[in-house]
Amino acid sequence: MKSSIPIDKAAILKRYKPIDAHTHKGIQGHALLVGGSYGKIGAMTLSSKACLKTGCGLVTVFIPRCGYEILQTANPEVMVLTDVQEKYISNIEFNFMPNAIGIGPGIGQELETQNALHEFLTNDKRLLVIDADALNILSQNAAWISLLPDKTILTPHPKELERLIGKWNSNTEKFEKTVAFSKLHHVIIVMKGAPTFIIDGETIYENSTGNAALATAGTGDVLTGMITSLLAQSYEPIDAAILGVYLHGLTADIALHKTGYQSFIASDVISNIGKAFLSLEK
Ligand SMILES: NC(=O)C1=CN([C@@H]2O[C@H](COP(=O)(O)OP(=O)(O)OC[C@H]3O[C@@H](n4cnc5c(N)ncnc54)[C@H](OP(=O)(O)O)[C@@H]3O)[C@@H](O)[C@H]2O)[C@@H](O)CC1
Ligand SMILES: Nc1ncnc2c1ncn2[C@@H]1O[C@H](COP(=O)(O)OP(=O)(O)O)[C@@H](O)[C@H]1O
Ligand SMILES: [Mg+2]
């Protein structure tokens, strides 16, 4: 494997942009998160809350109808658009100009959802984060990967990565195949794991934060919200990916002495994002 660039606090401080005292919510970016299906609306509740808590000025979610009251009740700060379908997404429609879009948490793999993703990728060329079942849909329809805008951020866990690039026989081969995929499609790959690597063509970054407390449902959905938030706030895609992964891991390092490994949950990532940001100011 090619040597990787460590992402530590010094590397982060070169990329981190402190908040301007005169900013307002209109400048802080408007993110759109698309996902959810019956039984998996929680993925969107988590990712949209994380998106707000990472500093985005406005957050809108696009979800199936069954999630409307759940989202509005759980996260009153988030705006909600709904699909015509009750239980899954069938047609991604919105009437505003988001600065960045995150798509996939809990979205499922219904055929109509697959078609909606295809339609969306054909017509929309905005900054994009792709996660979870949206990645699985791309794996099943490999030709659609060419529709992704350059510098789209993909956030696969190991199984999703395998579905995307095929099996590997060694760690070296895993990196070779991921780098080749990144170069071929001009995408950034957040290779989630312990640790997480961020791959941008030939360049490999290795994150230094995070621990096994993150091995719990929904932490990846939260990461998608965080990276989409930074993208909407005008961070370059590679910086949004690196800073998002670093802060996400840092929340678990900060919380560990209170929660231990076992009782840390995805909501604890969200409630510690503030402390993670504050640690950058010291
Ligand atoms: N509250 C909600 O609404 C939630 C909703 N969610 C939503 O659910 C959808 C399905 O997502 P998902 O990731 O659970 O399913 P899937 O893609 O089949 O992968 C699972 C398999 O992958 C593997 N694997 C995973 N991690 C690995 C690792 N680190 N290292 C190694 N292997 C690893 C592992 O395979 P195994 O080892 O068992 O062979 C495991 O069985 C998705 O849309 C998501 O957003 C969830 O976020 C939960 C909370
Ligand atoms: N043992 C571990 N050490 C460090 N980070 C971990 C560990 N296990 C999981 N994570 C992190 O937790 C997140 C899990 O993402 P994912 O599998 O997509 O979860 P979900 O789909 O349930 O939201 C990733 O950011 C991954 O790097
Ligand atoms: Mg996931």
UniProtKB/TrEMBL annotation:
One of its GO terms (molecular function) is ATP binding. It catalyses: (6S)-NADHX + ADP = AMP + phosphate + NADH + H(+); (6S)-NADPHX + ADP = AMP + phosphate + NADPH + H(+). InterPro entries: Carbohydrate_kinase_pred_CS, CARKD, Ribokinase-like. Residues 8-280 form the YjeF C-terminal domain. AMP binds at K192, G193, A194, P195, T196, G220. The keyword Transcription does not apply. Its cofactor is Mg(2+). It is an enzyme of class 4 (lyase). (6S)-NADPHX binds at A43, G106, H157, D221. One of its GO terms (biological process) is metabolite repair. PROSITE patterns: YJEF_C_2, YJEF_C_3. Its EC number is 4.2.1.136. Keywords: ATP-binding, Lyase, NAD, NADP, Nucleotide-binding. Catalyzes the dehydration of the S-form of NAD(P)HX at the expense of ADP, which is converted to AMP. Together with NAD(P)HX epimerase, which catalyzes the epimerization of the S- and R-forms, the enzyme allows the repair of both epimers of NAD(P)HX, a damaged form of NAD(P)H that is a result of enzymatic or heat-dependent hydration. Belongs to the NnrD/CARKD family. Homotetramer. This is ADP-dependent (S)-NAD(P)H-hydrate dehydratase.
